[in-house]
Amino acid sequence: xxxxxxQILAISNSAALFVEAGETPHLANYLIxxxxxxxxxxxxxxxxxxxxxxNISRFFxxxxxxxxxxxxxxxxxxxxxxxxxxxxxxxxxxxxxxxTRNLRAILREWKADEALxxxxxxxxxxxxxxxxxxxxxxxxxxxxxxxxxxxxxxxxLLRGSLSVHANVRQxxxxxxxxxxxxxxxxxxxFALDDCTALHxxxxxxxxxxxxxxxxxxxxxxxxxxxxxxxSIRLVDGNAVEIN
Length: 243
Description:
- The chain has 243 residues and is an alpha/beta fold.
- It is 25% helix and 29% strand.
């Protein structure tokens, strides 16, 4: 029987997934392609932003445009309390952005962090943006407290550290630098500009992606230098070019 790799898509910002009407939803199309299914079931977890009605509506609208079956798991109104039933019957998960610390606390309270790990190991594709990407690593740089950027533990599906929105706030890069010079340094460490993503296969980086010119993905493998990675730019017509 052929091996089905475990796969993760970590996206810097949710706006890169929820593109405006009339724009090609490149990252949604890419995520659908990862499932290798027609009309796959993709489940939204929006706990990080307190179940934002705007983002939930955007997710279901995206499903109609991109061609997937949307589900929504609301941790504030659960129909099923068994952790192993939370993600049953889905092909992929999408963890939306918001507060990394709040997302971690909610997942832990419902034992959904361990259920998510089991689903991932069983072949469910896991994706997330911003806080939803942070949570997948050992450490993520977060502004869960708005006045500062600080490292917070994720659930550790992937080794290393992540800093999203790297081109939006300089203090995010400074926070990552401090983290990598501290006792909890964890590598590889990635810094993602908005409109970029990382595709992992069997826990190893498969490719870096971007949907906008000049959007960068950088990585420090532990040698103290943050090097820019070559990335595949997703362009109209599903063609790709090296960025």
